[in-house]
Amino acid sequence: MKFSPALGQLIDALRCLPGVGPKSAQRMSMHLLERDRAGALALAEALRVAMDRIDHCTQCRNFSELDVCEICVDPRRDRQTICVLETPADVLAVEQSGSYRGLYFVLMGHLSPIDGIGPAEIGLDKFQARVIDEGITEVILATNPTVEGEATAYYLSDMLLPRGIRVSRIAHGVPLGGELEYVDGNTLAHAFTGRRQLSGGA
Amino acid sequence: MRVSLQPAYLLHSRPYRDSSLLLDMFTAEHGRVSLIGRGAQRRSRGGSQAALLQPFRPLLVSFAGRAEQKPLLAVEAAGALPALRAERLFSGLYLNELLVRLLQRHDPQQPLFALYGATLECLATKPVVDADLRRFEFGLLDALGYGFDPAHDGHSGLPVAQNGWYQYQAEFGLVACDTAAVASGARFAGGDLLGIAAGHYEGEYGAAAKRLLRQALASHLGERPLHSRELFRQFRNAGRQQ
User: Fold this and answer.
1) N or C: chain B end with fewer CB closer than 10 Å?
2) What is the mean pLDDT of residues A88-109?
3) Which residue range is the domain that position A85 belongs to?
4) What's the complex ipTM?
């Protein structure tokens, strides 16, 4: 059976979503047309608005509708500490953990020479200027513990340490509720080198 | 075709679809191959495959199929991750970029594979690695069929003269040249070349060896610059400004 051109176009367009193949795209299109036309229009409008309005925050590079995002203008946050992350999803993860009250900087990637991504592409020059201008005293490097993430963290630490800024790297180790038997050797080695002395009474 | 437990290193990986990875691997007996790690980043597998699939780590991979991109069936660690720290990470990424740019797929390169592993080991353990990087670059040129002998004139076949001047040409290797016609940055003193041929890649011959290999590699890399070298340069410059 041949679809009408508009339906064919809709099915193709839906396939841009992650995890959606031709069959699921077809099912989604049929569902929207048969049962939920109002929902489909709301979706179309939401998509249009989001694409029009959402850009990067000029300070932290996270997604935001405002020039400067809510986290960056929040007066209750610690303005001396800044946490460097690879993606906006990482910001959400840290925010949901509720363990951090400082500011963020989102690289939107990591250093990866083979892909042609250098310091300028992930905004490191901008970050350096920001750290100096705003008098940041501590930078937390929370890039992923992959080879590229480590290279990025090292590049940043080398850039900041000579300026007398406190730089820390998030700890790598055994996950909570995990069992040592199933943790891979490198993680375990990291956990051992980064072990913490217990003080009396703790 | 099914290949089991093949020694390999990951050169580069890219996310693909939802939770898969496109892997550019350097294997011992099959050379550079590209594999698809289906669901490698899936959480239900504990993300264990993605955690194993890191550059520089000795791996054992199993794959099958005749397609250009073969599915990765299994992966195991064959050893500990060499502890590349600080600047050595950039050097390691440089090796990987060279291999990705210059190696053809499905071209077995066993000596080069062994040399790559040994060079990574040096990067992890030695305080100075310039000579090891040069040895790798020479080994890579040899493996590609672009090897040349620094002690002989590629045109005439005569031994290099201590006081002569030579320039590198991709087709011949080193060729005697006129000092007036060739800029000083493009020519090499005979004495330096004899030192390099004797295996001295450090100390007084270090700079010449670096320049010679850079020119030799550049002629095969084509127009596009090496991003890892650019990264290293920016890194050094950033350090100097402070």
Assistant:
1) N
2) 90
3) 61-167
4) 0.80
